Write the structure tokens for this entry.
Amino acid sequence: MRISHLTPDGQEAYSHEVPQFGLGVFLMSEEGECRNSVLHALKVGYTHIDTARVYGNEDEVGKAVKESGVDRDSLFITTKLRRGHATGYDEVLEHCQKSLELLDMDYIDLYLVHAPPEDPEHRSPVWKGMEYCLEQGWVKAIGVSNYGAAHIEAMKEYATYMPCVNQVEFNPWLQRPDIKKATEAAGARLMAYSPLARGQKVDDAGLAEIAERLGCTPAQVAIKFCYDEGCITIPKSSNPSRITENIQSLDVDISSEMDAIRALECNYVSGWDPTSEP
Ligand SMILES: NC(=O)c1ccc[n+]([C@@H]2O[C@H](COP(=O)([O-])OP(=O)(O)OC[C@H]3O[C@@H](n4cnc5c(N)ncnc54)[C@H](OP(=O)(O)O)[C@@H]3O)[C@@H](O)[C@H]2O)c1
């Protein structure tokens, strides 16, 4: 899938190809857990890993990539600027360099502001820092996470390059039509985090019925739904058989059940939701 950054005159800049499916590595804090999960994922065909400074495992992602022997250029690595570090221009440069060091990589494919900086005054200088990282080639693409429609709209006042991605919680129980529309209108793609609502909805009765009719697992239905809605989709698992099960969702045809899946919407937030903050 192609991602790019819209400029004020409507041109696309710094385009990059992103695999639409990847492994999320949040809550893999035991030593070796992230490394083993990434190694298994790369073995079964994953090419995109979504980490963050706050997950504390950028180093394990980097080590697993090296150990796998897979060519770095055939992989896509996303990481994020921690919210507490999103306080100014210089801080962004410093923390981007730190992430490169922890990953032990020459570049990051996609660098995201993890959530709207808490002080609205910091949002413009932080984004200018992100743009500098892009121009220097430290990162190949920049985006945001947990930005609501109003946060994206405000970026038009200060951005030279609009974000190419907005990563938010998205799944059958939280479909976010307003955020999706605002994200796409800004030339960005929606990136779906918590496609399984952090595992809280894998046992949902409605989902189980749909899965039974389709002859696949409930998790596969939820993951494929996010994917078929056009989102970059990054389920997390530290369990090798589920890591495999999750990528196999890409082979499942859910088209006959799209209406039934859409009807699961219930505005369910499984974790945090800074998108509605001022
Ligand atoms: N930008 C943000 O603010 C933000 C916030 C949250 C998440 N994220 C990103 O999005 C990724 C995914 O979201 P998430 O980790 O919150 O939750 P998720 O992917 O919705 O769900 C993960 C949970 O579901 C379980 N699970 C995974 N596959 C399963 C399967 N096939 N059957 C049954 N259970 C399964 C996992 O347990 P096991 O590990 O035991 O399989 C884990 O408990 C994160 O890892 C992170 O990279 C970003």
User: Anything to note?
Assistant: The chain is about 35% helix and 15% strand.
